[in-house]
Design brief:
Kinase-like_dom_sf, Transferase(Phosphotransferase), domain 1, 48% helix, ATP binding, Protein kinase domain-containing protein, alpha+beta, 3 domains
Length: 396
């Protein structure tokens, strides 16, 4: 039974916590004993709630139980950290067992169509907890590190298929509930360098500002250009979960700078895009061929993750301070197996023929694909090698 998986493991964690507290109580001074006693009372309250939801008579769905479990897990983490017990071996092992079972239950849940519907029915605090749980698991997606940190303990990174399922589940739930994972929202204001956009992307105006001492690019979607703004905003959110040396990193979502609108916040790269770079260095720069190799590596990573960029062209290929490629602008990126496709083409550049004349190729609408991305990267290689940029009608 689903309920018997991780909730009893959380009960085991609380039992272990009580044993550790008893040991601390015996060793503590009279002043410190009062604090230990208070923490034990908090732990007992959590234990009673977990015990109640563990009963076979519970009317909660599997999705609701998992959301409740994650909420309790956060409370337990706060208790353990408040008493500086993170390195206590007994607690570490009990938490590890509980966390592994929670992730296993998550995988089972989203792998079944009927249960997937239960996830999409979540609302309120349960929906928020479920999104936060998925976000935390997705944060440990780096398959080059077999062991990662989850909460206080380590678990194995999720597989590629599991990550894709998690992303689809999170995107649909976020769209239905209009919620975001708590840690995805930027905490704190951004000081804009100018009240006016300094650059324009295909589908968004880009402002430059300062956030926590760093210079950042803030991309605000231009709502007058498309009726599908929510879909584009959802795809911007997904960028947070994809990390690669040749992809532009992502701070998070800014919900404060533009009331009623969301903006994607990324590092601002002073060197600009590959066009600007070529203007300054010239086509004879031997770094160019290394940059093209990095570009291909970045696109391969996206395709391995079943992500279609959809707008790959020189203005979206940036150069960082160390002279490396950073692929940017995922406003058109989409899951390769998604059933929702953009009906709009990108601005400028040379695209695969089926994107201009989709009817002739048997498509009913504009249909970005991996093949179209490969065509686009071939075009970029031609542009760079010939120092001619179609989108800009520019010869360097």
């Amino acid at each position: 039974m689903f309920v018997t998986h991780f909730l009893p493991n959380l009960e085991d964690v609380m039992g272990t916590f009580a044993q550790v507290c008893c040991d601390l109580y015996d060793e503590a001074s009279s002043t410190h004993r009062q604090e230990v006693h208070m923490k034990c009372e908090q732990a007992y309250t959590i234990f009673e709630e977990i015990d109640y939801w563990s009963l076979p008579t519970t009317t909660l769905s599997r999705a609701e139980i998992l959301a409740q479990g994650y909420r309790y897990r956060l409370q337990i983490t706060e208790l353990v950290e408040s008493m500086n017990l993170s390195s206590e071996t007994r607690l570490f092992m009990a938490l590890r067992r509980a966390d592994l079972e929670m992730v296993t239950c998550l995988k089972d849940l989203i792998g079944e169509a009927s249960d997937g519907k239960l996830v999409q029915d979540l609302r309120g605090e349960d929906a928020q907890c479920f999104l936060d749980f998925i976000y935390e698991v997705l944060q440990h997606q780096d398959v080059t590190r077999p062991i990662v940190q989850f909460g206080l303990v380590t678990i194995t990174s999720p597989s590629t298929d599991f990550r894709q399922s998690l992303l689809r589940t999170a995107s649909r739930l976020a769209e239905k509930t209009r919620k975001l994972p708590s840690k995805l929202l930027i905490d704190g204001p951004i000081e804009m360098r100018s009240p006016y956009p300094e650059f324009q992307g295909s589908f968004g105006d880009i402002f430059v500002g300062s956030f926590q001492g760093d210079l950042v690019a803030v991309k605000k979607l231009r709502v007058f250009q498309t009726h599908n703004t929510e879909e584009r905003a959802k795809l911007e959110k997904a960028r947070k979960f994809f990390q690669h040396p040749y992809l532009l990193s992502f701070y998070g979502i800014d919900s404060q700078s533009f009331p009623g609108l969301l903006a994607a916040v990324s590092p601002f790269l002073r060197r600009g895009n590959i066009i600007t770079f070529l203007k300054k260095t010239g086509i004879d720069n031997p770094l160019i061929w290394g940059l093209l190799t990095e570009l291909m590596a970045g696109l391969r990573y996206l395709h391995d993750e079943s992500i279609v960029h959809g707008d790959l062209r020189p203005p979206n290929i940036l150069i960082d301070a160390n002279g490396h490629i950073k692929i940017s602008d995922f406003g058109l990126a989409n899951f390769a197996n998604s059933t929702h496709r953009s009906t709009e083409s990108t601005e400028g550049g040379a695209q695969s023929p089926e994107l201009y004349d989709f009817d002739s190729f048997g498509y009913k609408r504009y249909f970005p694909s991996k093949k179209a991305d490969v065509f686009a990267i071939g075009t970029v290689c031609w542009e760079v090698s010939h120092s001619r940029f179609l989108a800009e009608n520019l010869v360097v």
